[in-house]
Design brief:
- This protein is mainly α.
- The chain has 8 helices and no strands.
- Helix 2 runs antiparallel to helix 4 and helix 4 packs antiparallel against helix 5.
- The longest helix has 28 residues.
- The model has no long low-confidence stretch (mean pLDDT 93).
């Protein structure tokens, strides 16, 4: 066993595997949002919980916004899954999740916690994790296994 390679991998990771990690995260989160958006848009009664949440959060035009947010999740999730327009799709979903955190999710964190426990609870929220994934995908790009990579290769020759 080559200890030097093992220590290098343990400390610095492997750039050879990075493209697979990007693919796994991009497709997984893309499918999650595509399915979630589709269930809200196309399943009977799927839009009602979104509408109710927006009304409770006092978001203007809740009926229109329920369809808009669900459409963003569906369309951008599909785009991320295939890796087409990945950065704009990640940006739209990033904004969607930031708004969700600020208008709804933060209210679920118990009051009266110490700052450290409050931060622990906030960082445990799935929406915050999605925000971090979208920031990472915007910065890393969609990876080698994406329509964007193929398209950039064709356009930038």
């Amino acid at each position: 066993m080559d200890w030097k390679r093992l220590v290098h991998f343990a400390l610095l990771g492997s750039s050879d595997l990075e493209q697979y990690a990007i693919l796994l995260v991009r497709v997984s989160i893309g499918l999650f949002f595509a399915i979630s958006g589709a269930n809200k848009l196309f399943a009977a009664g799927g839009i009602k919980p979104v509408y109710d949440t927006l009304v409770q959060a006092k978001v203007p035009f809740p009926h229109l916004m329920a369809y808009f947010v669900s459409g963003v999740e569906f369309v951008c999730g599909c785009l991320l899954t295939v890796g087409f327009l990945s950065s704009p799709a990640s940006g739209a979903l990033l904004i969607d999740m930031i708004v969700a955190v600020l208008t709804n999710t933060l209210a679920t964190v118990p009051k009266g916690l110490s700052r450290l426990n409050w931060l622990d609870d906030v960082l445990y929220l799935p929406e915050v994790l999605y925000v971090l994934f979208f920031v990472w995908l915007i910065c890393s790009g969609p990876g080698r296994f994406s329509a964007d990579y193929w398209l950039a290769g064709k356009l930038l020759r």
